[in-house]
Amino acid sequence: MPIRRLKALCLILALAACGKSDLAEPPVPLGDFALGLNIVFADNVEMVPISRKATPEEWETVMKKAVQDRFGRYEGTKLYNIGISVDGYALAPPGIPVVAAPKSVLVITANIWDDAAQKKLNEEGKQFTVFESLSGESVIGTGLTSTRKQQMDALAYNAVKKVETWLLENPEWFGLPPLPPKPVQSPTASSDN
Question: Domains of the chain: which residue ranges?
Answer without folding.
Answer: 27-172
